[in-house]
Write a structure and sequence with these properties.
Length: 93
Amino acid sequence: MAENAIKSAIKTTPQKGEIEPSRWYTLYEIAEGGLFRGLKAAQSVRRIILADKNKKNILQTIVQGDANGRRYGIKGENIITFLKVWETGEYQL
């Protein structure tokens, strides 16, 4: 019984680089998962997130805390929208 549950969980688990539209992602999940193609460093991803927040706010990032305790939350569907616009070259930071 438990073996079937494990197999079904493996089938529904997204592959590396795939984005679930309904899921909330943190800054480090985006960086480690390579969701922003070509960027693996958390600092680089943070710069892009903050630049987007100050310009068009396509990612609609939720920022909680301050200074070193700052947490970033981004919904998967917003990441997908951002990547489509960014990769076509319509949006430059």
